[in-house]
Amino acid sequence: MRLPHRILLLGLATLTPTFGADESFPVAVTVDAGDISGPLRDFWRYYGGDEPNYATMKDGQKLLGQLGELAPGRSFIRLHNLLNTGDGTPAFKWGSTNAYTEDADGNPVYDWTGIDRIFDSGLERGVRPLVEIGFMPQALSSQPEPYRHEWRPGFDYSLIYTGWRMPPTDYAKWEELVYQWTKHCVERYGRAEVETWWWQVWNEANNQPNGYWGGTIEEFLKLNDYAIAGVRRALPTARVGGPHTAGSGGAFMEAFLDHALHGTNYATGETGTPLDFVAFHAKGSPRFVDDHVRMGIANQLRTIDRAFTTFGDYPELAGIPVIIGESDPEGCAACQGPQLAYRNGTMYSSYTAASFARKHDLADIHATNLEGAVTWAFTFENQPYFAGFRQLASNGLALPVLNVFRMFAHMGPERIAAKSDHQVPLDAILADGVRADPDVGVLASRNGHQIAVLVWHYHDDDMTGPEADVTINLTDLPLATRAWPVTHYRIDQDHSNAYAAWLRMGSPLAPTKEQYDALEAASALTPLGPATAVTVTDGAATLNFPLPRQGVSLIVIGENL
């Protein structure tokens, strides 16, 4: 029996209704282990959040440790608000480090304690910074009052746009701030370490003047030039880029690229601005219709397609790393509402499996060097259990979506040919989403003698539907005849799902220690059952299993000898 998704909203429970399931339908999947199509891109190892100070707290550090374990030293986190003025107390859509203040005579005072705590929390756990240079310290802001906002979920979103988003009063001081910060990082962490980081300026500056950037496009280009000059003055080999537009960026992205490639640098007077990677954001658009959530996967994938097309129009960008700096089902992690009720349960996890596979396909189609896709979901400390925020964990308990990333981490470095007769074609998803037949898709990899097959059963509508009766036919397996071990991991209502376990407990507001331990066990990536074996004959084998709607399976076959 499928449990409803639920969020807590202003003290009320919002329920997504369930519908009767029909009989299962057959799905045929073929996997050719000998047909290696290229590398399986691991761009999933990027994460982010608005509230940087959560990274220093108990649940934030626990989550960082879990993320670091998935790709030690290769995982990255991007955080807003690193240069904000304040005492470091976290709040929704806010953070601060007090890195820059001025004395009574207007002289800079630098204090890296807050930023060091944030960066140390990640680096000690195998997660490196994708450094976002922002936002504007109060002493440099051209509109210093009001500075800190008092927004909270349910308030008008425009209330967040206060003095932290404004251009500096002195671009030379802005450059020196960034230079001193970069120099400090090199001294603290070592040149070789900092050379592995990515550096970029601001967030979604195309949403101006009534968004994250309170200046003009010309002022942003100047802001970017001075900041990048500061980074490169301290570390000439630093990896720098941008601009992290909201959406594909349109005319703003083109103006940024034209300036970076051919324009006159505001800070140096030279031609162009260093550009080691390019970045944009892509979001879906869920709605609440007919008493259920309907996702908008098409919107997110169309944005990615447009951005990749734009980059392809610039020959100078051939092969350059691309980072989708925020890549999510919708825009506001700290917001709540009925259209966001997908977050706690299997809708979010199946969406992630289906969308990340299509990002891989779009990168292949456009010959794009997709380095990272930042899942803008971290955690919100000291909030109610499963409160409906877009996060990877709640009160230290991994949500089902985090288990998709754990599945990705089990996959090998080589992509192998795999097809499903119920996988919705990419062109159809770009046009209409997944609104008719469900998307039962497959992504497969090889690592020596180990084969991993990811299968998802996704639909845009959060409604109960029939199970998929999946048959996987594997061919051209290495070691042609032998019994191979099989481990089948599953995310559904009964596996890898702390939220469903919490609902079955009666949704306790304050779980006991025994209940918490049970929820933590339920939050782990869980096998469907005991490990089994499959007999391989002449390089071929067959597996069969049911997969419920919005479920995700990872089948790991063989061993890496």
From TrEMBL:
The organism's taxonomic lineage, starting at the top: Bacteria, Pseudomonadati, Verrucomicrobiota, Opitutia, Opitutales
Stretch forming the signal peptide: 1-20
Name listed for the protein in its UniProt record: Beta-xylosidase
Transmembrane segments: none
The Glycosyl hydrolases family 39 N-terminal catalytic domain, residue ranges: 28-523
Organism the protein comes from: Synoicihabitans lomoniglobus
Keywords (A to Z) from UniProt: Glycosidase, Hydrolase, Signal
GO biological process, one term: carbohydrate metabolic process
Active site per database record: 204
Tree of life domain: Bacteria
InterPro entries registered for this protein in UniProt: GH (IPR017853), GH39_cat (IPR049166), Glyco_hydro_39 (IPR000514), Glycosyl_Hydrolase_39 (IPR051923)
Family stated for the protein in its record: Belongs to the glycosyl hydrolase 39 family.
Molecular function via GO: hydrolase activity, hydrolyzing O-glycosyl compounds
